[in-house]
Amino acid sequence: MDVKTGFFYLFSVVLLFSAFRVVTARNPVHAVLFLMLTFSQASAIWLLLNAEFLAIVLVLVYLGAVMVLFLFVVMMLDINIDNMRKGFWKNFPLAATLGAVVALEMAAVLLSGFRLAKAPVMAAGAVPVDNSKALGILLYTEYLMPIQIAAAILLVAMIAAIALTLRERKDSKAIDPSLQVRVRASDRMQLVKMAPTQEAPAPVATAAEESK
Question: How far apart are the first and last CA of the chain?
Answer without folding.
Answer: 115
